[in-house]
Specification:
two-stranded antiparallel sheet, alpha+beta, single chain, transmembrane, 3-stranded antiparallel beta sheet, about 15% strand
Length: about 160
C-alpha cells in the first residue's frame, strides 16, 4: 500500500516482507515445539493419575459387590460372568445389580489393560495398572511381587485388599 507522498518526500510502504513473516513464523514454531515437548511429561503424569483414580473407583464398585454378594467376583454365582480378565470383571460387576454399569479402561489406547486377581476364598483381591512414570511416588506405597496371580512389580501399580 502506497501512501501519497507530499511534495519532495518519497513514497512510504506499509506491511511486512515475506522474509520477515517467515522468520516470525519459524520462531513461533520453534517455541511451540519446545513447549509441547516439555508438556509430554505432564500428559503422562495426568494419565497415571487417572489410572490410579480408575482403580480406586473399581475398588469402590467391588466393595458394593461384596456388600451384596458377601464375596468378591470370582465365579458366576452372584454376577453374570466369571472375571477371568478385566472385561469379565466389568461384566460381573455390572451384572450384580449394584448400580455400576461399567468399569474404566486404561486411558491410553494400546496400553496394557488393568488386571484383577482374587484369592481362593474370594475374600481378598488385587487390582493393577501399568504406570508410564516408573518414578511415580505411588509405586512406593503399592504391593509388589505376584499377588493372586497378578504381577505387581514396578511400574505396575497394585491395590490390594
Amino acid at each position: 500500500m502506497l501512501k501519497t507522498p507530499q511534495k519532495g518526500l518519497p513514497a512510504v510502504r506499509y506491511g511486512f516482507t515475506l522474509i520477515e513473516v517467515l522468520v516470525v513464523v519459524s520462531i513461533i514454531g520453534l517455541l511451540a515445539s519446545i513447549v509441547l515437548v516439555g508438556l509430554g511429561g505432564f500428559r503422562s503424569q495426568g494419565r497415571d493419575a487417572k489410572r490410579i483414580a480408575d482403580l480406586k473407583q473399581t475398588q469402590n464398585a467391588l466393595e458394593l459387590y461384596y456388600t451384596k454378594c458377601q464375596h468378591y467376583p470370582g465365579d458366576a454365582a452372584c454376577g453374570l460372568g466369571d472375571p477371568g480378565d478385566w472385561a469379565g470383571l466389568g461384566s460381573a460387576v455390572a451384572g450384580a445389580g449394584i448400580g455400576v454399569s461399567k468399569i474404566a479402561n486404561d486411558p491410553l489406547p494400546g496400553n496394557p489393560q488393568y488386571d484383577y486377581g482374587v484369592s481362593g476364598n474370594r475374600q481378598n483381591y488385587v487390582l493393577s495398572g501399568t504406570l508410564e512414570d516408573e518414578n511415580n511416588s505411588s509405586l512406593k506405597e503399592d504391593s509388589d511381587g505376584t499377588v493372586f496371580g497378578v504381577l505387581c512389580d514396578d511400574p505396575v501399580y497394585c491395590v490390594e485388599f
